[in-house]
Amino acid sequence: MKSHLFWGLLLLGVLLGNVAWAEIPKEWGTLTLVQEIDCVKQLPDAEFPEPGVSELQSCGGGTCRVLRPSDETPKYMAWEVGKGCDLEPGGAYVLTVEYPEDVSRSMFLHNGGNETINGLATGTTTGDVLMGRYVNHNPESLHFPLSGKMETWNGLFWLHDRFSEISRPRGNGERPRLPKDGFWVLISQSYGYLDPTSAGAAVGKIRLYRVNDEAKLEAKIPYPPDDLPRRYLFQRPEMADGVVLLGNAPKEREPQMRGVENPVDWYAYKIRWQRAMGMNVFCKDLLEFGHNQGWNAEKYGGNDWVYEPFYKNQWDEIVALCASQKMPILPYYEYYGSIGGKKALGPQKRAVRMSGEKKYTHIWWCERANVDLSDPDTLADFEKILDCTILKYKDGVKTADGRVVRPEFLGAWIRNRPTSNPVSFNDRNLKDFATQANGGKIPTRKELKADRELREKYYRWWFGKRRDYVEAVAAFLRKTVNPNAFVLYTTDTYEPGLPIPALLAGEGKKDAWKYKTAVVNDAPEFWEKQLAQERYEKRFTKQIPLSEVMEKHLYPKALQSWQLDWGGHEVGHSAPPPDPDAWRDSPDAMFTYTIHRFYSADEQMDAFRTGAGLACIRHFPLNEHELNIDRDGKPLEPTGYFIADVERAGAFCVLPEVCAVAKGDPTRLGYLTGNTFQRGFPDVVRAFNQAYLALPALSSELIQKEKYGHEWIRRIDAGRGRVWYAVCNLAFTSATVRIDDLPQGTLVHCVTGQRYRVSNGSVNIPCAPMSLQSFQLKK
After folding, report:
1. For residue 19, what pLDDT is reported?
2. What does the DSSP assignment read for 423-488?
């Protein structure tokens, strides 16, 4: 990587102001301004930790209201929005927040109208808090250019029926506000030392717009011809559905206890939002940490087999909704075995660790059930779950208007969680290993622990059993539901995505084991000095230069490494890594490759490609409890339950996705978020999604790499003279990208129709920063 030239060009881009930023998509038509709050003139309606904590500062060419960073306390400023403005529940609105791009800043934006919290990061800030309370957030600090102007975050949402006060409940809880009362919008930040380059949250104006014509919201996707396979975009939020949770107690089912009275309406809003962003697959968790998330298990024994929630028939309604909207479905499962009464498999905990015990980790809520993937009963049990959640709808469902429509199920997404699908060393496993891979000799657990070569042999056997299981699931779905069904298998158990292990990040350095949180950065002298402070030292937080991470390919190595054991636990066996090389010829199954930061996409991600394609999942840290519990673990409660998904500002909000297409070109791209998925720069997101989905889901060839700048060009040959090009600009500034060695003809932009004539084998394409464009060659 040409690191010195790269960062020099970035700094030049900052000086020239050569940055394209985000707006509300013009295709959405005219919006009606409902309310404008000038945060400079109008004092906040509430502040924390005390009134008057905000101040006015000159920034971004004007004046803004700012929260000065504090190492002692989080802060927020809040305004009531929409009060007395005739807001319509279920209506489409756009919330905009004006912020300055004068210096590096990070902040959280709370939209009480649909109960989401989103983070915004500019410049060198990490955005996600530097040292996560529970997990490693994979902090990254790079010199992203600043526009030097006021910019706008734009959030499209559908208004809920009820809203909480400032203190947001976790899941089921009182939401006393109605549309006539308006909802709260908060601008907040965590402790200053958790994002030390941030100059503080700052806001100019907050505006609420009403969408006049919802039909104009949908992003038009220029799909390839029907005889070619399509790419897929999908997302699964972890903590979002608490806002519509129907509890088992009568009080918990009263309307004021949830944000949307009919939970299925909430899912309808999600489908509309996805269509507006250009996402083409609906995904929902049906098992979360093994527990039923709203489907009927009566066919195989009901609660005796799988505990059923009060809303056990909700999945029927959601499938009918998707079918009526012609939205393909990819169900998501965190499978621990069936969890229920006397017929349940999971609580039997048939998987046994190498020590002979059944408890693999210290995470108590993950140790109540597990399955042995090599056990035939496991496949039979999971097939029953697939029967209840997919097969039962194969002949069609009745929609709300009485039609019978057949839903389209694409396959299944299975995610390993701690101890759900662990490496097992039970007596049957040892006998099967002996018969199938060890010449008939049954090893003891002590022998496996002592003999590394024997242990590696055992791992290879067990990995083979895991592949057999996943491919059997895919074969079952192909036979019964969809002949083209695929299965995604995610081994990454971390919400933020697996961190670079300490011994990789600290390799060759003194006290390598202390690199437990590695801040990937482009200013090592600054970060070395910053992290020398005791508050970082005692949390084992170190810096590592971006160039080192990229040159050593540390992230693909991290994804394929065993997690380190500690305290007598078998953490590695509880969540075994992928073995992608052994899956290359799989026709219908894929390990997923994790992306999240600039460094996460790597050319070595191609090792995860199988005969079914390459799948990438962008993981978002939860930032859980960062504003409602202090650093000593005591309740703080300024905002109630707090989780936030953070994205880079403007063009860089799709940085991981663009880098992934450039370096590996996945044909399935998904997201794991904490909140209801929200994007603050919809024009950037739509442009990427439209370009991505315009390309056939076929393998591409990298034909040009950084020949003139930071361009990565891929070619897809679909046969019969049909050729597409994916043009990726990984520069942090706008650029004119020259592509060479092209056949004569014209490149036609798949989304806009703009035509670029090839002259003498070359063409010049204007590109925004960190962007993807797709073209088809016409001769």
Report:
1. 47
2. ----HHHHHHHHHHHSTTPPPPHHHHHH-HHHHHHHHHHHHHHHHHHHHHHHHHHHHHT-TT-EEE
Residues 6+ apart with CB under 8 A from 357: none
Residues 151, 21: contact at Cβ < 8 Å? Answer: yes
Tally of CB atoms within 10 A around 46: 16
pLDDT digit string (tens) for 388-433? 999 999 999 988 888 999 999 999 999 999 999 999 999 999 999 9
> Half-sphere exposure of 363 toward its Cβ, with a 13 Å CA cutoff?
19
Cα 648 versus chain centre, distance: 14
Burial of 561 (0-12, 13-18, 19+ CB in 10 A): middle
Q: Residue 80 is inside which H or E element, if any?
A: strand 75-81
DSSP one-letter code for 580: G
Residue whose pair of structure tokens reads 């065993």 in the numeric block? 562
The residue-averaged pLDDT of 88-110 equals: 98
Adjacent-strand bridge partners of 151: 99
Within 10 Å of residue 525's Cβ, how many Cβ atoms?
Answer: 9
pLDDT digits (tens, 9 = 90+) for 658-713: 999 999 999 999 999 999 999 999 999 999 999 999 999 999 999 999 999 999 99
- Measured distance CA(640)–CA(628) in Å, rounded: 6
Q: Look at residue 535 and give its three-state secondary structure.
A: helix
The two beta strands, 140-141 and 517-521, are parallel
Q: Of 523, 541, 637, whose CA–CA distance to 144 is shortest?
A: 523
Cis peptide before 49 (omega within 30 of 0): yes
CA dihedral (760, 761, 763, 769) positive or negative:
negative
Alpha-carbon distance values, 93 to 34, 156, 321, 708 (Å): 9, 6, 22, 43
Alpha-carbon distance of 457 to 300, in angstroms, equals 38
CA angle 70, 640, 129 (to 5 degrees): 40
The residue whose two tokens read 């939205």 is 327
Q: By C-alpha distance, which of 268, 219, 237 is closest to 684?
A: 219
Q: Give pairs for 101-104: CB < 8 Å, separation 24+.
A: 101/21, 101/60, 101/146, 101/147, 101/148, 101/149, 101/150, 101/151, 101/649, 102/59, 102/60, 102/61, 102/146, 102/148, 103/59, 103/146, 103/199, 104/146, 104/197, 104/198, 104/199
- Which parts of 605-700 are beta strand (E)? 615-619, 645-648, 668-673
Q: Could you read off the pLDDT of 327-381 as tens digits, one per residue?
A: 999 999 999 999 999 999 999 999 999 999 999 999 999 999 999 999 999 999 9
Query: No. of H helices and E strands in the chain?
Result: 15, 35
User: In this structure, what token pair is assigned to residue 683?
Assistant: 């024009």
